[in-house]
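Database export, one record per block. Field names are fixed; values are copied verbatim from the stored entry.
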Amino acid sequence: MADPLRAVIAELRCDVRAVRARDPAAEGVSAVQILAAWPGVQALLAHRLASRLFAAGWRFPARMIALVSRAITGIEIHPAARIGPGLFIDHGMGVVIGETAELGADVTIYQGVTLGGTGFATGKRHPTVHDDVIVGSGAKLLGPIVVGRGAKVGANTVVIHDVPPESTVVGIPGRPVRVEGRRPDGPGADWAHLPDPIADAISGLARRVERLEAMQQPGSSLAPDMPPAVAGPVTLGGPSPAGG
């Protein structure tokens, strides 16, 4: 009996340390207040109980505990999900962690994050998140992908491919914009790997349009040896929709 009690106390201390280390709002707050008023901590406590019951074959009580926890905290964690020590769920409303999800140690998750599956596949169908990963608000990690140690996932990013360790991923779909603190380089460093790929693509199109317009200017060094095209009216077949 003493060993399980010590294990529970160790888990509670780990939860409190994680909150104090990663939540500025917890500065000067007692451990009792953190346990009583932090939904992320409460969801973890409920999950540990539900997980043990689920593993022991008590599936219905485990699901009921998860259901009550979701109603109280706004955080849904499947009883079969495997969660390592030091998980910090900040605010947590709308967080969903699926059945076959696996989280390592010291992971940080913000509100609205989904660790979900895709389609109706069976078996391993949810993400594996390694140690020290930070997942920003609203991010969606979908499918049996692997998020490497120390990676950061930007807010509202949709991740459907593996994430390299020590990288930063943004966008829809998520693509790395930092690997080990630096932008990716080499042949694969196209516009999609930049911090704002959509803005960069639009900028590139604007430069191309400017170049094409310059080619149409008489006397331009970029102009071809032919007169500029003259735009004429476009005639479509059939009667005019305006009538007449």
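Remark 1: Residues 189-219 form one domain.
Remark 2: Residues 186-194, 234-244 have pLDDT under 50 and may be disordered.
End of record.
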